[in-house]
């Protein structure tokens, strides 16, 4: 189901956008999932693949681990140092792997990548906190409106009770409203971060200009 109004659901347009994507869009499209330990550590699910990342192949018949030696965005493939094959003439060549078939076990970290992980992790934590807060508010409203029902009305234990009370649709609309409020809070948080960055840049520019005038 399509949720973004700016993205077409027509296959021909999706293919055209995929094959005509610029290098920045291809960088995002070539994102690999992080391992379970890294997801818990950074609160980030995926990261654009980078040369020198240590990855593990999780799909296919050759499930090996190695280091990324090359990223070919024109073909949406990567090359791993331990994945090679020998041709009939005796030449050894690397085998291309699609980025969706690997997961990152040890990312290559530099200043920019550490900042990206921190930014995404902070945004994810703020989103979880806002969702938890909204859930608490909705639970309070729900308990006041339906004192005889459990808040976990859609679990297997309480389905019969919900059907007897004939009020599952109202609760469904409430939960949809919770998700909408959470998404709005996330957009508001992102906008506030952009505004803060713009203010910091303006302050730095004013300081540099004042220093230049003083000279």
UniProtKB/TrEMBL annotation:
Domain of life: Eukaryota
Family annotation (SUPFAM superfamilies): Translation proteins SH3-like domain (SSF50104)
InterPro entries referenced in this protein's UniProt entry, alphabetically: Rib_uL2_dom2, Ribosomal_uL24_euk/arc, Ribosomal_uL24_KOW, Translation_prot_SH3-like_sf
MF (Gene Ontology): RNA binding; structural constituent of ribosome
Record bears the keyword Nucleus: no
Family: Belongs to the universal ribosomal protein uL24 family.
UniProt protein name: 60S ribosomal protein L26, putative
Upper classification of the organism: Eukaryota, Amoebozoa, Evosea, Archamoebae, Mastigamoebida
């Amino acid at each position: 189901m399509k949720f973004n109004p700016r993205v077409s659901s027509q296959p021909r347009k999706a293919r055209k956008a995929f094959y005509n994507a610029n290098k920045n869009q291809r960088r995002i499209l070539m994102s690999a999932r992080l391992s379970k330990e890294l997801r818990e550590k950074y609160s980030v699910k995926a990261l654009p693949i980078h040369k020198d990342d240590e990855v593990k192949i999780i799909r296919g018949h050759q499930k090996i681990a190695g280091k990324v030696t090359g990223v070919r965005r024109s073909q949406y493939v990567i090359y791993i140092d331990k994945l090679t094959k020998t041709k009939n003439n005796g030449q050894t060549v690397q085998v291309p792997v699609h980025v969706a078939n690997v997961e990152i076990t040890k990312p290559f970290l530099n200043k920019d990548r550490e900042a990206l992980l921190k930014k995404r992790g902070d945004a994810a934590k703020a989103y979880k906190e806002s969702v938890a807060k909204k859930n608490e508010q909705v639970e309070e409203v729900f308990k006041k409106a339906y004192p005889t029902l459990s808040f976990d009305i859609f679990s297997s234990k309480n389905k019969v009770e919900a059907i007897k009370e004939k009020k599952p649709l109202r609760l469904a609309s409430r939960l949809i409203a919770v998700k909408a409020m959470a998404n709005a809070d996330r957009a508001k948080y992102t906008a506030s971060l952009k505004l803060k960055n713009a203010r910091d840049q303006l302050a730095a520019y004013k300081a540099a200009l004042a220093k230049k005038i003083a000279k």
